[in-house]
Specification:
Elements (H helix, E strand, L loop, with lengths): L1 H27 L11 E5 L7 E7 L3 H4 L7 E8 L5 E4 L1 E4 L3 E6 L4 E11 L2 E10 L9 E3 L3 E5 L3 E3 L6
Parallel strand pairs: 1-10
Antiparallel strand pairs: 1-4, 2-3, 2-7, 5-6, 7-8, 7-9, 8-11
Length: 162
Amino acid sequence: MKNGKMILGGMAVLLLAFGLVFTACATTGGGTGGNTDPKTITINGISALTGDVRILIFSDLNNIHGTSHQPVNVAVANGTLTSSFITVDLFVPTNNFAQSTTKWKGSGSYYIYIVGKNNDRWSTNNAYIYAGSGDIPLQYNINEAAITLSFDNFKKYNTWKN
């Protein structure tokens, strides 16, 4: 009988711990990302751009160096800067650049490119790519639903493309 009470007591503790873990995960709003959570990106400290911006997520840097200078995008987002930051949902692209209504749920390592408008046109003169603390483009490991990056980690497109 004593062993039965210990087993029941142990099961109660396990159930309580299991419940607390799931309650804590549900209130964090994050999760692990994976392929099931829609992705949101925030870029803070944007001092070099104003107004409308476009964020492009792509995996092959070679296409951006080619004659078309157009990467094959896996996700896109359009938005307007608020003060010096932007927070936008990422979407599956249509026609490579247009934002669809389907939220992007991917994960993995990708290049992140942000471009501003210049005279009402998207311009590589107003473009930056994620480089971490270095000077060359780096892929960023997208593994959470909410991505937050500092604009300090982006380098001007024209400084490395040639």
